[in-house]
Amino acid sequence: MEVPFLDLARQYRRIGPEIDAALHGVLERGSYILGNEVAAFERAFASYSGARHAVGVGSGTDAIHLALRACGVRPGDRVITAPNTATPTVCAIVQAGAVPVFVDIDRTTFTLDPGQLRAHLAAQPPSLRPRAVVPVHLYGHPADMPEILKTAAEYDVKVIEDAAQAHGAEYGGRRLGAIADASCWSFYPTKNLGAYGDAGMVVTDDPDVAERVRMLRNYGEEAKYVNRIEGVNSRLDEIQAAVLRVKLGHLDQWVTTRRRLAALYDTLLVEAPVARPTETTLARHCYHLYVIRSRHRDALRQHLLERGIGTAIHYPLPVYRQAAYRHLVPADREFPCAESACREVLSLPLYPELTEEELRHVAAAVCAFRG
Question: Final residue of a domain: which of 186, 216, 245?
Fold first, then answer.
């Protein structure tokens, strides 16, 4: 049996008529940039997130970049994040003119370790204290936001969430989106809520942050041809907003299905020679990815490939070991939890259209591995 790691065409086949109607409406109206569809999706996503404001931008990377600037991060400021994130998180920090600083992760959740964050901040003299921290809700599991927010408040550090993989996730019974100073979302096609191209969003309760992002995304314009600040071109377009409005209506059901499939994996893999994902007490994992761990990860991946099963590695290298960012960390410095995660993680197929038969085939193959 061939089991693709992801098959986005299956989703379109299920909701195609709704998508086609939304696209046709945009084409009939002939408005393509910052029109009614964008405004409607911004309102809908803010409501879904439990926040007052949402501002559509061109990508998840842009969302972090613009949110950092809107929250007062200046060139040369230090910004903390996790070392095992996708490179775009760090690209966004650099785009804002800031200096990325890494703090190690919790071994079980793969997210920023609040204890390590506190220790790092306590060790910094005021002149080197970071301006912001960007916790990453990796794979769909929320970071420990109460502890991160508590520590950040003590040291006067802004908190900007990278929620690119967290659509539908919760912490303490509350959806992510309005917990920090700002939350940043990607709607890249593979996400739980994905567009048909690049798209992103900044969500916040702070009206000043929202207004600054609105200006920054559109050349710094306060009004047409009135540029108050130095901005960029990063606008969510009408076609992507229309697609996302349709898909938002399906998101909760998709997350419920992801959680059901993840629970089935958990049951079938209980005797497998791998570590399964963890969901902490207060967290509601949205299972953007189902990520197992194995000390024989590469051999296991080859074993699955030979059985027609697609997998992926999120992510094979800590960002500071990428050639572009090696200068950020001394060669002798290590982050042991992030390092071991990058050596051991393997993402199995998991998406709402995955059949139970396919999932059982994947699980059986994992259980049969004798690496």
Answer: 245
CA geometry: angle 241, 250, 39, nearest 5 deg: 25
Give the range of the structural domain holding residue 26, as residue numbers without chain letter: 8-102+112-245
Query: pLDDT tens digits for 313-349?
Result: 999 999 999 999 999 998 888 899 999 999 999 999 9
Residue 155 domain-assigned? yes
Distance CA 355, CA 113 (A): 35
Rounded to the nearest 10°, the torsion over CA 234, 235, 240, 241 is 140
**DSSP string spanning 97-159?**
T-EEEE--B-TTT-SB-HHHHHHHHHHS-GGG--SEEE-B-GGGPPP-HHHHHHHHHHTT-EE
**pTM strictly above 0.90:** yes
Q: Encode pLDDT of 187-204 as tens digits.
A: 999 999 999 999 999 999
**From CA 227, how far away is CA 71, in angstroms rounded?**
19
Give pLDDT tens digits for 66-80: 999 999 999 999 999
Domain shared by 219 and 263, yes or no: no
